[in-house]
Structure formats: structure tokens, C-alpha cells
Fold this sequence. Notes:
Helix content is 36%, strand content 18%. It is α/β, with parallel strands linked by helices. The protein starts with 22 loop residues before the first helix and ends in a 7-residue tail after the last strand. This is tRNA 5-carboxymethoxyuridine methyltransferase.
Amino acid sequence: MAHACIDKAEFVLKQDQSFDGRADKFARNIYDSTKGRIRTKVVWSDIEACLARLGNRPLRILDAGGGFGYFAQKLAAMGHQVELCDLSADMLALARVQIAERGLEDRIRLIHCPIQDLKAHVTGTFDLVLCHAVLEWLAEPRRTLLGLFPFVHAGGILSLLFYNRHGLLFQSLVVGNFDYVRQGLNKKRQTALTPTNPQLPEQVYDWIGRGGLKIIGKTGVRVIHDYMRHKQDQVEKFEDLLAMEQHYCRQEPFVALGRYIHVMAQKPASGKS
């Protein structure tokens, strides 16, 4: 029996998802866990490479949909100026407390707005634009992403992290969740922290290319962790696991199997095509 829905992305959201009421739970579950530690280590390595590519100088950085600003705070602590926007007032309240504790108030400006309304709140362009784990929560990811491209300065870099539909499909297959696959990866009941609109990598890459940016790097995030047969190994063998993640995360076919994919794209410098 054929199941035509299996290879189609059929997620349709009526509105963008906010983390109001879930900010503390998000911070604990996403960042204080083995999967969160892998995510931050791998992505930060990529960001450091982007910083090196941009030169040893203070940068103007936009963190679009950055939540409580995990990376925004790290970047501000390095001396960069950061604008952090998020749809969730609760996330920004958490950010405000952490920023004050670290004495970073002069280096981070908080903006409470949807990404789509950024034009009303910021001016000019940025050397580095972060958009991490946002597309999969949006009703119109393509339109929102295209709206970010004008904020990238000529020669600047976009750091885009998104929830990978192929990774979700593969994990569902290897655990034998075949009914879920036949339903097109649609759940009747969504859990609070499970992304609702996973993205097809080839589609995201096409949007980036059509927006005039050149992809300069791709990294799979959690290319091993989520597929391990014995979940206790995620904790008991974490250091070895992290080393293996870092070794394979930028190699195919592993990139394509990451639960998230971090893609870095650079806008051509002025006068270059």
C-alpha cells in the first residue's frame, strides 16, 4: 500500500508559536541536558569560525528570535554589540535578569517584537545575524527568512539553525514509529517543546540562494545522540559522544541526518556577485 503523504511536508500553522509561560522549562530542557550541551558546543564552534572570518573587531550582531539570548550573551561578553529580539515577553524577562547578573546591559538591547516587525525597531545592517531554532515555530518560515536577508551587511554572515525534517523522519523510522511516518509526521497532540513545523533542508538552502547569500558551511547538530540505542549512554558516555559528534557533524551523510542543521551563509561584499 502506497502512502503518498510520507515524503511531503504538510505542517501548517495558523500563527507563530511563542514561549510565553514556558521560558523556564525551555531553558532547563534545551540547555541543561545532554542534547542541549551538544547543540551549544557544536553551534558555538561554528560561530567562532564565523567571527574569525569576519575579522578581529567589534561587530554589530542581531539575534532574531533569540529567546533569553544564550549566544547573544556570550557574544556580548566578548565585546560585541547585540540586538536581541523575541516574540516572548517571558523569554526576554529571563534574558534581562541574566544580562544584569553578567553586567552586559550596555552591550545588549532587548526588543520585544516578532521578527517580521524588526524594521520598526532596528536600523541599518549587521555583521552577523543569528536565527536559531525559529523557522520550525513559524507559520510562514520562508517569508520570515527572506525578510531577514536585508539586515545582513554586505560581507556579513547569516547563522541559521533549523529543525531538520529528514532527521525527524529518520529517527521515527529507526525506532519503528511507522504509523507516525504514515501520518506525515503529524501528531494529534503536540508536546510543548516539540517543534511544530520541521523544515526540509533542500528547501531552506534554496531560499538562501534565492536571497542572494552564498552558503559557506553546513553542520549537523546531534547526528548521533538522538539515534543511540541505549539512552543511558547519552549521559554515561557523554564526553566520547561529544567528541564523536564534533568529528562527524560537518561530514556527509551525517550533516543531512542532524536533528538540527546549522547553515552559515555570507552576503557578497559590495561590488561582488
